[in-house]
Amino acid sequence: MTEPSTGTSPLTARGSTWRREVFAGMSTFLALSHIVVVNPAVLSQGGFPHGAASFATAAVGGLATIAMGLWARLPFAVAPDMETNAMIAFSVVGTLAYTWPQALGMVFWSGVAMLVVSLLRLREAVVNAIPAELRSALAAAVAAFIGLVGLRMSHLVITSDSRLSGSGDWTAAPAVALYIGLAVALVLDASGARAAAVLGAIAASAVYCAVGGIRATAAHATLHDAGAALFRFDLTVIADPRAWGVILVLFALDFFGSIAKVVGLSANTPLHDHEGRVPGMRQALLVDAGATVTGSAVGSSSFVAYVESAVGIRAGARTGIAAVVTGLLLFSRLFLSPVLVHVPVEATTGALVFVAVKMLTVRRPGTTGAPALIPTAAAVIVTVATLAIDQAMAAAFLVSTAARLIRRRWPHPALWGTTLTLVAGVVLQYLNR
Known about the structure:
Elements: H1 10-13, H2 18-32, H3 35-44, H4 50-72, E1 78-80, H5 82-95, H6 100-119, H7 122-129, H8 132-153, E2 157-160, E3 163-167, H9 173-190, H10 196-212, H11 241-266, H12 281-298, E4 303-305, H13 309-314, H14 320-340, H15 349-361, H16 370-386, H17 389-406, H18 413-431
Antiparallel strand pairs: 1-4, 2-3
């Protein structure tokens, strides 16, 4: 990586070391490795070839994450979005009766639109126009989402149709794994250990395997049938007016979901410059847009910056080196799955909840007073109610914009336009159900 003109390396400038970056990259991989199992399992419910979805998840996700590290120089992992894969499988294919090649065609066109607006720097302009109180709200929404992911993976909460529908078994092995991982992480964090989250996950994994035995998951990344969906997307779907609404929803989910995650993950870290902006933001947004286009050609739904990157950031990730490590490990799932699937997914849940707690309790600039607390509360409440970061973002922007109008402060044009677009996107999502 090119060194700044000050003569200091990027590692030194951001207060990190090679050892810390490598460990943090491994931590991020541990937290998100479940996606290689979960994404193809969800997409296969809509008829997508399982082997192709597995290959796309590991190969495209791994290469995109490496690109994130080398080009954007940011410690963000890139993987299929769990908000859109369920929508594609159960709504677009299941309810609207499109074929899976047509669904991939919609993902492709939404990715192309994302590339265009990213090249025109429209997404970058939106990010730079977000005021401090909304950055805090987005960080809180991301934290709440991370915590809910951990609770859902441990079966402490049950979801149905992307909504919380009840509580699970609080005494079962997955729940106990969360308790152990969270307790170990909290104790180590209190003693000043930077790697508290991942060490908690390792402890939970050891206990979980000792009690329940080592078991392999049948669904994992594989080279078998990897090309079953290669270029099988139906690009003619763009001629169907009914598909336009779906493409717009996918576009909105990616457009605003990535913004929320990048802003939320980088909040209160050295990833910001002295002006509060994230260097490499444009490249990061282009990487996830390019990954969506590539993923649609291979057999998967949209790719985005992944919230589980927070585990690595908490462990000290500050540069793209961590992302390169994560990407290499993610890509290795194609060849090492028979070994890696023995690590229980449930062991990472305590780490996710720990990171969520730390993100929710940290003090950030611009977080005092009603102008900041009300959008933050709205974002967290909507995240819990809907499990959708884009809808939480819409609520926070709407509340903040309304508050500015009440105080007779005209919002920035980008803020005003973003609010209207977010609300329209949420309305379209419900109309397409």
